[in-house]
Amino acid sequence: MAGYLVEDTRKVTTRRLIEMKQQGKKIAMLTAYDYTMGQIVDGAGVDVILVGDSASNVMAGNTTTLPITLDQMIYHATSVVHGVKRALVVCDMPFGSYQVNSAEGVTNAIRIMKESGCDALKLEGGVEIIETVKTILAAGIPIMGHLGLMPQSINKYGTYAVRAKEEDEAEKLLSDARALEEAGCFAIVLEKIPATLAAKVASELKIPVIGIGAGGDVDGQVLVVNDMLGMNKGFSPKFLRRYADLNAVMTDAIGQYVSDVKSRDFPNIEEQY
Ligand code: KIV
Protein backbone atom coordinates (compact mmCIF):
# COMPACT_ATOMS: atom_id res chain seq x y z
CA MET A 1 0.00 0.00 0.00
CA ALA A 2 1.73 3.17 -1.20
CA GLY A 3 1.62 6.73 -0.07
CA TYR A 4 0.11 6.98 3.36
CA LEU A 5 3.27 7.43 5.38
CA VAL A 6 3.47 11.11 6.23
CA GLU A 7 6.92 12.54 7.01
CA ASP A 8 5.60 15.56 8.88
CA THR A 9 3.10 14.57 11.56
CA ARG A 10 2.55 18.09 12.93
CA LYS A 11 -0.96 19.55 12.68
CA VAL A 12 -1.40 21.14 9.25
CA THR A 13 -1.94 24.91 9.34
CA THR A 14 -2.88 27.43 6.67
CA ARG A 15 0.68 28.72 6.85
CA ARG A 16 2.08 25.21 6.20
CA LEU A 17 -0.05 24.93 3.07
CA ILE A 18 1.45 28.14 1.70
CA GLU A 19 4.94 26.79 2.53
CA MET A 20 4.07 23.56 0.71
CA LYS A 21 3.29 25.58 -2.40
CA GLN A 22 6.57 27.47 -2.07
CA GLN A 23 8.44 24.15 -1.74
CA GLY A 24 6.60 22.60 -4.70
CA LYS A 25 4.93 19.95 -2.50
CA LYS A 26 1.47 18.89 -3.68
CA ILE A 27 -1.49 19.16 -1.30
CA ALA A 28 -3.88 16.19 -0.94
CA MET A 29 -7.42 17.12 0.08
CA LEU A 30 -10.56 14.96 0.43
CA THR A 31 -14.01 15.45 1.88
CA ALA A 32 -15.34 13.72 5.01
CA TYR A 33 -18.67 14.13 6.76
CA ASP A 34 -18.45 12.00 9.91
CA TYR A 35 -16.14 10.88 12.73
CA THR A 36 -15.20 7.46 11.31
CA MET A 37 -14.39 8.76 7.83
CA GLY A 38 -12.53 11.74 9.32
CA GLN A 39 -10.33 9.32 11.28
CA ILE A 40 -9.62 7.14 8.21
CA VAL A 41 -8.91 10.06 5.86
CA ASP A 42 -6.68 11.77 8.45
CA GLY A 43 -4.84 8.53 9.28
CA ALA A 44 -4.12 7.95 5.58
CA GLY A 45 -2.17 11.23 5.39
CA VAL A 46 -4.56 13.66 3.70
CA ASP A 47 -3.44 17.28 4.35
CA VAL A 48 -6.81 19.04 4.21
CA ILE A 49 -10.22 17.57 5.04
CA LEU A 50 -13.19 19.42 3.61
CA VAL A 51 -16.53 19.06 5.34
CA GLY A 52 -18.18 19.87 2.04
CA ASP A 53 -21.76 20.92 1.52
CA SER A 54 -21.68 17.96 -0.90
CA ALA A 55 -22.92 16.25 2.30
CA SER A 56 -26.29 17.46 1.02
CA ASN A 57 -25.92 15.07 -1.93
CA VAL A 58 -23.90 12.14 -0.61
CA MET A 59 -25.17 12.03 2.98
CA ALA A 60 -28.75 13.29 2.66
CA GLY A 61 -29.62 12.27 -0.93
CA ASN A 62 -30.58 15.77 -2.11
CA THR A 63 -30.05 16.55 -5.80
CA THR A 64 -28.23 19.84 -5.03
CA THR A 65 -26.17 21.37 -2.23
CA LEU A 66 -28.79 24.06 -1.60
CA PRO A 67 -30.97 22.44 1.10
CA ILE A 68 -28.26 21.69 3.68
CA THR A 69 -28.59 23.94 6.74
CA LEU A 70 -26.10 25.70 8.99
CA ASP A 71 -27.01 23.35 11.88
CA GLN A 72 -26.47 20.29 9.68
CA MET A 73 -23.05 21.56 8.51
CA ILE A 74 -22.08 22.22 12.14
CA TYR A 75 -23.13 18.65 13.05
CA HIS A 76 -21.02 17.15 10.22
CA ALA A 77 -18.00 19.38 10.97
CA THR A 78 -18.10 18.64 14.71
CA SER A 79 -18.17 14.89 13.99
CA VAL A 80 -15.19 15.11 11.61
CA VAL A 81 -13.16 17.30 14.00
CA HIS A 82 -13.56 14.61 16.70
CA GLY A 83 -11.77 12.11 14.43
CA VAL A 84 -8.92 14.28 13.11
CA LYS A 85 -5.45 14.83 14.59
CA ARG A 86 -3.26 16.12 11.75
CA ALA A 87 -5.24 17.46 8.79
CA LEU A 88 -6.54 21.02 8.50
CA VAL A 89 -10.35 20.79 8.72
CA VAL A 90 -12.21 23.21 6.44
CA CYS A 91 -16.01 23.52 6.60
CA ASP A 92 -18.20 24.83 3.77
CA MET A 93 -20.50 27.71 4.64
CA PRO A 94 -23.86 26.46 3.32
CA PHE A 95 -26.04 28.27 0.77
CA GLY A 96 -27.85 31.20 2.35
CA SER A 97 -25.54 31.55 5.33
CA TYR A 98 -23.28 34.29 3.86
CA GLN A 99 -25.00 35.72 0.78
CA VAL A 100 -27.41 38.14 2.54
CA ASN A 101 -24.84 40.55 3.99
CA SER A 102 -21.44 40.68 5.75
CA ALA A 103 -22.94 40.95 9.25
CA GLU A 104 -25.00 37.79 8.84
CA GLY A 105 -22.03 36.09 7.14
CA VAL A 106 -19.63 36.78 9.98
CA THR A 107 -22.22 35.82 12.62
CA ASN A 108 -22.73 32.44 10.92
CA ALA A 109 -18.98 32.00 10.35
CA ILE A 110 -18.31 32.54 14.06
CA ARG A 111 -21.02 30.01 14.95
CA ILE A 112 -19.44 27.31 12.75
CA MET A 113 -15.96 27.95 14.18
CA LYS A 114 -17.14 28.05 17.81
CA GLU A 115 -19.48 25.07 17.73
CA SER A 116 -17.56 22.68 15.43
CA GLY A 117 -13.94 23.43 16.31
CA CYS A 118 -12.95 23.35 12.62
CA ASP A 119 -9.89 25.28 11.41
CA ALA A 120 -11.19 27.29 8.45
CA LEU A 121 -14.19 27.95 6.20
CA LYS A 122 -14.82 27.75 2.45
CA LEU A 123 -17.11 30.16 0.56
CA GLU A 124 -18.18 30.07 -3.09
CA GLY A 125 -17.79 33.28 -5.11
CA GLY A 126 -15.49 36.12 -6.10
CA VAL A 127 -15.94 39.90 -6.12
CA GLU A 128 -19.68 39.58 -5.39
CA ILE A 129 -18.91 38.35 -1.86
CA ILE A 130 -15.60 40.14 -1.28
CA GLU A 131 -16.92 42.42 1.51
CA THR A 132 -18.22 39.39 3.40
CA VAL A 133 -14.91 37.58 2.84
CA LYS A 134 -13.04 40.59 4.27
CA THR A 135 -15.38 40.85 7.27
CA ILE A 136 -14.97 37.15 8.13
CA LEU A 137 -11.18 37.38 7.68
CA ALA A 138 -11.16 40.43 9.96
CA ALA A 139 -12.70 38.24 12.68
CA GLY A 140 -9.60 36.04 12.48
CA ILE A 141 -11.24 33.21 10.52
CA PRO A 142 -9.20 31.74 7.65
CA ILE A 143 -11.04 31.44 4.33
CA MET A 144 -10.59 29.15 1.35
CA GLY A 145 -12.21 30.56 -1.80
CA HIS A 146 -14.08 28.48 -4.39
CA LEU A 147 -14.37 29.51 -8.05
CA GLY A 148 -15.26 27.88 -11.39
CA LEU A 149 -18.22 25.56 -11.06
CA MET A 150 -19.96 26.73 -7.89
CA PRO A 151 -22.68 24.17 -7.07
CA GLN A 152 -24.56 26.64 -4.83
CA SER A 153 -25.28 28.63 -8.04
CA ILE A 154 -26.62 25.65 -10.02
CA ASN A 155 -29.99 27.31 -10.50
CA LYS A 156 -28.25 30.29 -12.12
CA TYR A 157 -26.12 28.10 -14.46
CA GLY A 158 -28.73 25.42 -15.17
CA THR A 159 -25.95 22.88 -15.82
CA TYR A 160 -22.96 21.19 -14.12
CA ALA A 161 -20.90 21.54 -17.35
CA VAL A 162 -17.30 22.84 -17.42
CA ARG A 163 -17.09 26.57 -16.56
CA ALA A 164 -14.92 29.42 -17.90
CA LYS A 165 -14.37 27.99 -21.38
CA GLU A 166 -15.15 31.39 -22.90
CA GLU A 167 -12.69 34.27 -22.61
CA ASP A 168 -14.92 36.67 -20.66
CA GLU A 169 -15.72 34.10 -17.97
CA ALA A 170 -12.04 33.06 -17.81
CA GLU A 171 -11.02 36.72 -17.36
CA LYS A 172 -13.59 37.16 -14.58
CA LEU A 173 -12.36 34.00 -12.84
CA LEU A 174 -8.78 35.28 -12.94
CA SER A 175 -9.74 38.65 -11.47
CA ASP A 176 -11.92 36.95 -8.81
CA ALA A 177 -8.93 34.76 -7.84
CA ARG A 178 -6.69 37.83 -7.58
CA ALA A 179 -9.32 39.62 -5.45
CA LEU A 180 -9.63 36.64 -3.06
CA GLU A 181 -5.85 36.42 -2.66
CA GLU A 182 -5.59 40.17 -2.11
CA ALA A 183 -8.36 40.02 0.52
CA GLY A 184 -6.32 37.43 2.44
CA CYS A 185 -7.73 33.98 1.57
CA PHE A 186 -5.20 31.20 2.29
CA ALA A 187 -6.17 28.97 -0.67
CA ILE A 188 -8.65 28.66 -3.52
CA VAL A 189 -10.53 25.66 -4.91
CA LEU A 190 -11.07 25.68 -8.68
CA GLU A 191 -13.82 23.32 -9.80
CA LYS A 192 -14.33 21.97 -13.31
CA ILE A 193 -12.52 24.51 -15.49
CA PRO A 194 -10.03 24.09 -18.37
CA ALA A 195 -6.62 22.84 -17.17
CA THR A 196 -4.76 25.66 -18.94
CA LEU A 197 -6.77 28.32 -17.10
CA ALA A 198 -6.28 26.58 -13.74
CA ALA A 199 -2.52 26.37 -14.41
CA LYS A 200 -2.46 30.11 -15.17
CA VAL A 201 -4.24 30.94 -11.90
CA ALA A 202 -1.92 28.65 -9.91
CA SER A 203 1.21 30.17 -11.43
CA GLU A 204 0.03 33.73 -10.82
CA LEU A 205 -1.15 33.34 -7.22
CA LYS A 206 1.09 32.90 -4.19
CA ILE A 207 -1.59 30.99 -2.26
CA PRO A 208 -2.28 27.32 -3.06
CA VAL A 209 -4.79 26.48 -5.76
CA ILE A 210 -6.56 23.15 -5.23
CA GLY A 211 -8.26 21.63 -8.25
CA ILE A 212 -11.19 19.32 -8.84
CA GLY A 213 -11.57 18.65 -12.54
CA ALA A 214 -9.00 21.41 -13.17
CA GLY A 215 -5.98 19.38 -14.38
CA GLY A 216 -2.64 18.58 -12.80
CA ASP A 217 -0.80 21.92 -13.00
CA VAL A 218 -2.23 23.25 -9.75
CA ASP A 219 -0.95 22.98 -6.18
CA GLY A 220 -3.20 20.17 -4.97
CA GLN A 221 -6.25 18.04 -5.66
CA VAL A 222 -9.58 17.46 -3.93
CA LEU A 223 -12.20 14.76 -4.50
CA VAL A 224 -15.40 13.75 -2.74
CA VAL A 225 -14.37 10.74 -0.65
CA ASN A 226 -17.50 8.69 -1.35
CA ASP A 227 -16.90 9.12 -5.11
CA MET A 228 -13.20 8.15 -5.11
CA LEU A 229 -13.95 5.12 -2.93
CA GLY A 230 -16.60 3.98 -5.40
CA MET A 231 -19.46 4.15 -2.91
CA ASN A 232 -21.72 5.98 -5.37
CA LYS A 233 -22.47 3.96 -8.46
CA GLY A 234 -24.17 6.58 -10.59
CA PHE A 235 -21.65 9.46 -10.61
CA SER A 236 -18.82 9.15 -13.18
CA PRO A 237 -17.46 12.53 -14.32
CA LYS A 238 -14.30 12.47 -16.46
CA PHE A 239 -12.15 13.93 -13.66
CA LEU A 240 -13.03 11.22 -11.12
CA ARG A 241 -10.49 8.44 -10.48
CA ARG A 242 -11.98 5.54 -8.52
CA TYR A 243 -9.50 4.03 -6.06
CA ALA A 244 -11.82 1.29 -4.81
CA ASP A 245 -15.18 -0.29 -5.50
CA LEU A 246 -16.59 -0.04 -2.00
CA ASN A 247 -20.14 -0.28 -3.31
CA ALA A 248 -19.42 -3.86 -4.42
CA VAL A 249 -17.36 -4.69 -1.30
CA MET A 250 -20.08 -3.40 1.05
CA THR A 251 -22.95 -4.99 -0.89
CA ASP A 252 -21.14 -8.38 -0.85
CA ALA A 253 -20.37 -8.15 2.87
CA ILE A 254 -23.92 -7.13 3.80
CA GLY A 255 -25.38 -9.79 1.50
CA GLN A 256 -23.20 -12.41 3.25
CA TYR A 257 -24.46 -11.19 6.65
CA VAL A 258 -28.09 -11.45 5.51
CA SER A 259 -27.48 -14.96 4.28
CA ASP A 260 -25.67 -15.99 7.51
CA VAL A 261 -28.53 -14.66 9.68
CA LYS A 262 -31.17 -16.41 7.63
CA SER A 263 -29.27 -19.70 7.52
CA ARG A 264 -28.63 -19.50 11.33
CA ASP A 265 -24.86 -19.52 10.68
CA PHE A 266 -24.53 -16.20 12.57
CA PRO A 267 -24.00 -16.02 15.50
CA ASN A 268 -22.07 -19.23 16.19
CA ILE A 269 -21.06 -20.63 19.57
CA GLU A 270 -17.94 -18.40 19.82
CA GLU A 271 -20.00 -15.30 19.06
CA GLN A 272 -22.26 -15.53 22.09
CA TYR A 273 -21.99 -15.11 25.89
O1 KIV B 1 -18.71 20.38 -1.20
C1 KIV B 1 -17.73 19.86 -1.75
O2 KIV B 1 -17.50 18.65 -1.67
C2 KIV B 1 -16.82 20.72 -2.49
C3 KIV B 1 -15.75 20.07 -3.28
C4 KIV B 1 -16.31 19.49 -4.52
C5 KIV B 1 -14.61 20.98 -3.55
O3 KIV B 1 -16.96 21.90 -2.47
Concise overview:
By secondary structure, the protein is of the alpha/beta class. It is built from eleven helices and eight strands. Strands 1-2-3-4-5-6-7-8 form an eight-stranded parallel barrel, surrounded by seven helices.
Describe the structure.
This protein has an eight-stranded parallel β-barrel with strand order 1-2-3-4-5-6-7-8, surrounded by seven helices. It has 273 residues and is α/β, with parallel strands linked by helices. The protein is 41% helix and 14% strand. The chain contains eleven helices and eight strands. Strand 6, helix 9 and strand 7 form a beta-alpha-beta unit. Helix 2 crosses helix 4, helix 4 packs parallel to helix 5 and helix 5 packs across helix 6. It binds 3-methyl-2-oxobutanoic acid. 3-methyl-2-oxobutanoic acid binds next to strand 6.
Give the structural class. Answer: alpha/beta
Order of helices and strands: HEHEHHEHEHEHHEHEEHH
Largest sheet: 8 strands, parallel, barrel
Number of strands: 8
Count of helical regions: 11
Strand content: 5-15%
Mean pLDDT metric: 97
What is the percent of helical residues? 40-55%
Unreliably modeled segments: none
Strand order of the largest sheet: 1-2-3-4-5-6-7-8
Question: Keyphrases for this structure?
Answer:
single chain; 273 residues; alpha/beta; 8 strands; globular; binds 3-methyl-2-oxobutanoic acid
Write the layout of secondary structure elements.
Elements: H1 14-22, E1 27-31, H2 35-43, E2 48-51, H3 55-58, H4 70-83, E3 88-92, H5 102-116, E4 120-124, H6 130-138, E5 143-148, H7 154-157, H8 167-183, E6 187-191, H9 195-204, E7 209-212, E8 220-223, H10 225-228, H11 246-262
